[in-house]
Amino acid sequence: MRILLVEDNEDLGEAIEKRLRSAGHSVEWVRDGNDVVSAAEGDDFDAVALDLMLPNRDGIGLIADLRKRKFNAPILVITARSEIDDKVSLLDLGADDYLVKPFDLRELEARLRALIRRTGGQTTSTLGVGNLEMDLAGLNASVAGKSLELGRREFRLLEILVTNAGKVVPKERLMNQLFNFDEAVSVNALELHISRLRKKLEAANIEIGTVRGVGYVVRAPHAH
Asked: Who has greater pLDDT, 110 or 32?
C-alpha cells in the first residue's frame, strides 16, 4: 500500500513510518498542514493517516478540503481528542475511521489495511483467483492448498495484481506501491520480482501477462 502520513510529532511519525515500511508499505510523510493538499494531489495514495493537530492548518478543515477536491482515498484520523462529538463530525466530514492516542502501531496498520479492503469493495482478508488463494491478514499464499514461499515484496506485488485481476496495472503504479520514496527504483527491480513470482506460480492455473510498454495483468486462463 502507498500511504500518506500526516504527523508533526517527530517521534510518533518516525515510529509509524518505520512500522508501515517494515510491513512492506511505502510511506510519504508530511509534517506541515500547508503541505497536505499538494502531497495528496501529487500522487496516487491508497490511504491517509492524518493527525488532527497540525501546524498551520486544522485537520478537520483539511479533510473537508480534500473531499471537496474529490480526493477519494480512505482517511484514518489520529486524534488525542476523545470527545464523541468530534468523532461524529469527523465521520460526517469525510473521515473513514479514527484512532485515539495512545494506540498500538499494530492496530494502526490493521485499521489502514481494513479501510483499503473496504473501499476496494473487499470485505474479507482473503483473495482468490484460479487455484491461488491469498490470506492478506496472515500474509500467506497457497496454490491448490500448497503454501507458497513469498518474500514480503513478492507478496505485496501479487496482492496488487490479484486485487486487480483481469485489469492491467501500470508499471509505474506497481513501482510506486512497492518501493519507498527514498529507494533507487528501477524497472529492472520490478521485472525481477515479476519473473520470480512467475516461477513460484508455475503450479497455479493463472498467469501474469505482460502488456508491453504498459504493465502487467493477472489472468485466469479460460476453461477449455
From this structure: 32
